[in-house]
Write a structure and sequence with these properties.
By secondary structure, the protein is α+β, with helices and mostly antiparallel strands. The chain contains 2 helices and 6 strands; from the N terminus they run E-E-E-E-E-E-H-H. The chain is elongated and about 55 Å long. InterPro entries: PilZ_domain.
């Protein structure tokens, strides 16, 4: 089943703390949009209310789905400010930045120290 999304999910790697009334769990956001996040490394039952803590800034959410080691969290209000939104914008900008073309010989020379085939140049 294909789910139509209104927002594009962006791949990220953001360490967070997920807090409920009873517990605090460390996890990592692996994809993020203004409307929600996928968190790996911890899990809560679907329907649980929680808050995501990043750098002391709290974002509220509800667990929409949960598996053994990950879960999807939907935000009641779309992100439009704060550290989590800033991380999303940075990831989007990095995705749009073109990678400069480097000929293979130059890349290999840089990786091997520039001497080519193990020869010393100094």
């Amino acid at each position: 089943m294909q789910i139509l999304r209104t927002r594009e999910r962006i791949v990220v790697d953001i360490a967070i703390v997920v807090t409920t009334v009873l517990d605090s769990l460390e996890g990592t956001i692996v994809d993020l949009s203004e409307g929600g996040a996928q968190v790996v490394g911890c899990t809560l039952p679907a329907g649980s209310s929680c808050q995501i803590d990043l750098d002391g800034h709290i974002t509220f959410g509800t667990v929409r789905w949960s598996e053994e080691d990950r879960m999807g969290i939907r935000f009641p209000y779309e992100l439009n400010e704060g550290p989590l939104y800033d991380q999303l914008e940075l990831a989007r900008a990095a995705r749009r930045t073109p990678v400069a073309f480097q000929p293979r010989a130059r890349v290999m020379a840089a990786a091997t120290g520039g001497g080519g085939f193990g020869r010393r140049t100094s």
